[in-house]
Design goal:
145 residues, elongated, ribosomal protein, Large ribosomal subunit protein bL27m, 4-stranded antiparallel β-sheet, Ribosomal_bL27_CS, alpha+beta
């Protein structure tokens, strides 16, 4: 065996017939158009506890039901919780099956708590209305002139 055939046999590789292989020094990056990202959806709590609301005010914008509707609120098609009666927002937790759920409700007075014991204390609203006769029975202070 001569020296030339010995060297050719030892350097034989699957790519030796094709010649040299050039490998990339940078990863291939394609061009991307119109992918600058989308704006944020402004989700979250819009009215916090003890803030006054009127019917139609959005209380929580959410994806899925992180908060569930309680008294005097409803849930929209996109899980937005909004007020259906005037009052003050209250957040509370309730036992639900094996865990707890977070609820949002609206109460008439700022200091009221939810869930409300309607059997013991009676209803605060009838047909979504407020009993005005309670306010009329309170004495009105006369002006000192």
């Amino acid at each position: 065996m001569n020296f030339l055939t010995c060297c050719v046999d030892t350097t034989r590789s699957p790519f030796s017939l094709l010649g040299s292989i050039r490998t990339a020094t940078k990863r291939a990056g394609g061009t991307v158009h119109n992918h600058g990202g989308s704006p944020g959806k402004r989700l979250g709590i819009k009215k916090f506890s003890d803030q006054a609301v009127i019917p139609g005010n959005i209380i929580v914008r959410q994806r899925g039901t992180l908060f569930h509707p309680g008294q005097h609120v409803k849930i929209g098609r996109d899980h937005t919780i909004y007020a259906t009666a005037p009052g003050f927002v209250r957040f509370y937790k309730e036992k639900w099956m094996r865990g707890t759920r977070r609820f949002v409700g609206v109460v008439l007075e700022r200091g009221d708590i939810l869930p409300r014991d309607e059997a013991g204390s009676g209803r605060s609203r009838y047909f979504g209305l407020v009993n005005l006769s309670e306010n009329l029975q309170k004495p009105v202070a006369a002006h000192a002139n």
